[in-house]
Amino acid sequence: VQLQASGGGLVQAGGSLRLSCATSGFTLHYYAIGWFRQAPGKEREGVSCIPRKGGTVLYTDSVQGRFTISRDNSENTVYLQMNSLKPEDTAIYYCAARPGSCNLWSRYYNSWGQGTLVTVSS
């Protein structure tokens, strides 16, 4: 199971970025994929999760209405569209996979990609 996050960068507040999580080594549609982030000096937090098949995607309250998660099983990729970015969104963003249901608790995910840094300037 391999995951690789990309798409981070430096953006001004109010701007947008789209993160990608490219996956390989497993059948994507059997896994829930979560996005997590970790800011300096803070614990890793769950941002969003998309379930295996249909179902309800999850967002943490602070990104609800601004971020959108989606998946393209044919491309083995999960996306996180981030709009109206705020300085407090600055963090390293990670994607992770689990064969079970969706949740935003990092301890339930056993496969992680390397992170991609998102920096939002004020």
Q: Can you put this structure into words, describing what you see?
A:
With 122 residues, the chain is mainly β. It has no helices and eleven strands. The strands form two sheets. Strands 2, 4, 5, 6, 9, 10 and 11 form a seven-stranded mixed beta sheet that branches. The protein has a four-stranded antiparallel beta sheet with strand order 1-3-8-7, with no helix packed on it. Strand 5 and strand 6 form a beta hairpin. It is globular. The relative contact order is 0.33.
Tag the structure with descriptive keywords.
single chain; seven-stranded mixed sheet; 122 residues; mainly beta; four-stranded antiparallel sheet
Describe the structure in brief.
The chain is mostly beta strands and 122 residues long. It has strands at 2-6, 9-12, 17-24, 32-38, 45-50, 58-59, 67-72, 77-82, 91-98, 111-112, 116-121.
Overall pLDDT level = 95
H/E element order: EEEEEEEEEEE
Radius of gyration, CA atoms, in whole angstroms? 13 Å
Strand residue percentage: over 45%
> What is the 3D form?
globular
SSE blueprint and pairings:
Layout: E1 2-6, E2 9-12, E3 17-24, E4 32-38, E5 45-50, E6 58-59, E7 67-72, E8 77-82, E9 91-98, E10 111-112, E11 116-121
